[in-house]
Amino acid sequence: MRASLIQIAVDEGESVESRRRRMASLVRGQAGTDLVVLPELWTTGAFAYEEFGSEAEPLEGPTYEAMAKAASDAGVWLHAGSIPERTPEGPLYNTSLVFSPSGDLAAAYRKIHRFGFDKGEAVLMGAGAELVTVRLPETVLGVATCYDLRFPELFRGLVDLGAEVFVLPAGWPERRRAHWTLLAQARAVENQAFVLACGTAGTHAGVPQAGHSIVVDPWGEVLAEAGPDEEILTVDFDPTKVTTTRNQFPALKDRMLGLQPPRRQPDR
């Protein structure tokens, strides 16, 4: 199976519409690839909080239309990164879109863990509430986004739904790049799954981005890693290695579920 991660730079001097056209062209250039992955919030920039409201779009808005056509033109499965989604009810969401090679929407995932603590995304966007997987002919994708990477229980839940390949778009800051690599490898090892993590290059609202999109195998080996600048990272991998790894080292069978906190000892 061949995957291409498109690590695009988000330049504040480039309009959203121009970047949308440029990204569609890059996706079309990946014809012959099985799966193409784009970064988080590449239309606006993950840290351009002030742009979320003005650039938010409905689920089936201009980015949806452009990416659906690009997926169909290239004949690829496309994880189109994420967009700031505006819903009829009012809340914004950080929403990922996954398209089939025919251009049909295969899945949408609203980011569950929002970054920012008491500001930014954490207060401007609603939290998703559903785990999402997508069945491809070769494997099952588990969908997560950026800050989700820090929450291992989400990935365990995806494994329980059959996920073998985690696809994670991100807008990860350069100052925490060491965490990006470490956590991507940890999620791969503990779940015995592939991790395809696609970040952005450039600077969002003054925040330098880490780049360094990465593909990790079920043993934690880095199969490919991008540099800090714009790059298309393409890698061939064998999805059946997940089953082989889980059979050779069946650690997931030893999970202890439903553990309870210790009972409080009576006062003496």
UniProtKB/TrEMBL annotation:
The CN hydrolase domain, residue ranges: 1-239
Q: Which residues form a coiled coil?
A: none
Keywords from UniProt, A to Z, are: Acyltransferase, Transferase
Instruction: Keyword check for ATP-binding, yes or no.
Output: no
MF terms per GO, please?
A: acyltransferase activity
What family does this belong to?
Answer: Belongs to the carbon-nitrogen hydrolase superfamily. NIT1/NIT2 family.
User: What is the official name of this protein in its record?
Assistant: Acyltransferase
| Source organism of the structure | Streptomyces dysideae
Q: What is the lineage of its organism?
A: Bacteria, Bacillati, Actinomycetota, Actinomycetes, Kitasatosporales
